[in-house]
Design brief:
The protein is built from 16 helices and 3 strands. It has about 325 residues and is mostly helical. It has 2 domains: about 130 residues, no CATH class; about 180 residues, hpI Integrase, Chain A. Strands 1-2-3 form a 3-stranded antiparallel sheet, with no helix packed on it. Strand 1 and strand 2 form a beta hairpin. It is globular, with a radius of gyration of 24 Å. It starts with a helix and ends with a helix.
């Protein structure tokens, strides 16, 4: 089978059979495209950005761009699946390592290729055995989290008189108490959230939906923010650096906050609170999970709340329980 056709079938399989999320498919597609570029260096010079495999019925320009890029790839790549051996993959890995990428990132490329060849093997095609693609051994994952004092400093009132501060503190409280990812948070609209029931639904992996619960504190802060709003925009959180006299020139898309803005906003507040750690939205997720474990919440319940597919992902938080276990052991076993 031709390599490029196998790649397209793989992407379709991810979407339909594996029910992978859009972000997951984009990552696989990006990694494999880089591998294709390694096999055919002229691709980068003729296509100056990544190939888009995901069709969008609402964006005809995207579909046309995808088809145009496909034609270029079909003309450039004449590799067969059986031509790819482990030496080629290992040389690709070596090239990645020469670009100062960390081990985790290089392994992510290898995982994408390994998953691709696993799929190919299931199709009874003559191709590289995915078992031969090893991963580089890396240090055990460490979770960065904030302790109680750092949390209090981060959420301390710095400028409560402005709508921006009320918005920012409600964003951080929402992430901290619900474990929302930034991508989920920026997509929220006011109609999505039910403050009376203190819950809302988040679309997860195409058509899957999960329910997220708000704490009393997060509900209160979001309500205070919405009470300060005097606009008719749909997004739950918006930017406020616009002139109300020109509001007719704005729309939901132009006022919706970006992932980049929220990431930098959280880092700025951490610096103001004199927190030396590299704080991000994920740090807030880690912090609340750690808080629950310290208070002896069941790890299976935390797994469900975080929507981790595997319990091993959730178990990275158990490092904080070790001191607690030691205290109990000393108390009851003299």
């Amino acid at each position: 089978m031709e390599l490029i056709k196998a790649v397209e079938k793989f992407i379709i399989w991810l979407k339909i059979n594996r029910n992978a999320s859009i972000k997951t498919i984009e990552q696989y597609e990006f990694h494999i495209y880089k591998f294709l570029s390694y096999l055919n260096p002229e691709i980068e010079s003729k296509i100056n950005h990544r190939l888009v495999f995901i069709d969008s019925p609402t964006e005809p320009k995207l579909i046309k761009e995808r088809n145009d890029q496909k034609k270029i790839l079909y003309g450039l790549i004449d590799w067969k699946l059986k031509d790819i051996d482990i030496d080629i993959v290992n040389n690709f890995r070596f090239q990645l390592s020469q670009k100062d990428l960390d081990i985790k990132t290089v392994n992510a490329y290898m995982i994408s290729l390994r998953t691709f060849f696993k799929y190919i093997k299931k199709q009874w095609e003559d191709a590289l055995d995915p078992v031969m693609i090893d991963l580089i051994k890396q240090q055990e994952r460490k979770v960065e989290f904030l302790n109680k004092d750092e949390i209090e400093r981060l959420f301390s009132e710095t400028d409560p008189g402005t709508v921006q501060w009320v918005r920012d503190i409600s964003i951080m409280e929402c992430i901290y108490s619900t474990w929302l990812r930034i991508s989920e948070l920026v997509a929220l609209n006011i109609r999505d959230i039910n403050l009376d029931k203190q819950e809302f639904a988040v679309r997860w992996k195409w058509w899957k939906v999960r329910v997220v619960y708000l704490t009393d504190e997060s509900k209160s802060k979001i309500q205070k923010y919405l009470d300060r709003r005097n606009d008719s925009f749909s997004p739950l959180f918006i930017r406020h650096n616009f002139d109300m006299n020109n509001i007719k020139d704005l729309n939901d898309k132009t006022v919706r906050l970006s992932r980049f803005f929220i990431t930098n906003m959280i880092k700025d507040y951490a610096l103001k609170a004199k927190i030396l750690k590299d704080v991000s939205a994920h740090t807030l997720r880690h912090s609340f999970a750690t808080t629950l474990l310290e208070n002896w919440a069941d790890i299976r319940a935390i797994q469900e709340l975080l929507w981790h597919k595997n319990i091993t992902t959730t178990q990275v938080y158990t490092h904080v329980t070790n001191p607690k276990l030691k205290e109990i052991h000393k108390k009851f076993h003299h």
